[in-house]
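Re: duplicated header lines in exported structure tokens

Our pipeline writes sequence and tokens for each protein into one text file. With two proteins the header for the second block appears twice in some exports. Here is an export where it did not happen, for reference. First protein block:
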Amino acid sequence: MMTPVFERLPELVNANAALVRRGRYLTVTFLVTRGETHYLVRVVEGRVERVERGPFLMRDWRFAIRASEEAWQKFWEPVPEPGYQDLLAMAKFGHALVEGDLLVFMQHLRYVQEVLAA
């Protein structure tokens, strides 16, 4: 299902030179929750170094994006319905929760959004 896609993020993102360039100033670990499944995404200078599947016990992350399986499925549709077209819309309409260091998240919003859309 979508699990292999998340686990393929390093190859999908790192093969996209424009996306890597966009994130070149970002080195961070962030958490993505898809329903009950947790993923830690490690980014080093715009390249996705690794994606680890949880559960995790006391792991460090700067920000987290949490949404249901259904919300992620709608986000990944070729033409998402209103409220699912981007991460901020999902948060605004209650389909996702963004928490943690929001400054880092907002500074690199376009990059993070494109990584998760990959």
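Second protein block, exported in the same file:
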Amino acid sequence: MKRIIKKLKIEGRLHKVELMIIEKKDRAFLKRLFEEWKKTNEDVKKIGTRGINLPESFSESCFCLFFPSARVIKVHGKTSGSFDTIDLKTGRRQQIKACSTEKELTSFGPRSVWDDLYFLDFSKLDGSFAVYKIPNKYIYERGVNRNQTFREQQKEKRRPRFSIKQLIKEKGIKPIKICKL
């Protein structure tokens, strides 16, 4: 892994962006982190609590290992909101969500923005994960409670929550890639 600073066009303007580049040689490190997380997760459950979420920096790094993207550490200058990674070839902003369980509830920040949304499913717990690209049209108008859509909750500066796995099942979305650490 290496940190770099690069000038990138975001929302039509050049920004200085601090990035974390994930290299092929980082694969063994990420695999070790996954195994340590899995062990800690199992141990935590033994004391009568729910498991611990996968750290977002881990899932974002795993995504970048298999795609031409880098983790965004910091964008200098004003942008409309936050995103996780950026495609180094196209400049598209990416939001990465992940789960390690069969049932999940995914939360979004009120300022989350992206061009492309990816969901990583680690639920096999064997170091593999399925990557789904979720069309934006399915997100913004998604009902998150009886009265509101995702977009409406974001406008109220709330944190919309819903199950992406349920959405994947309902819409018949297939993985674009299966990856293995």
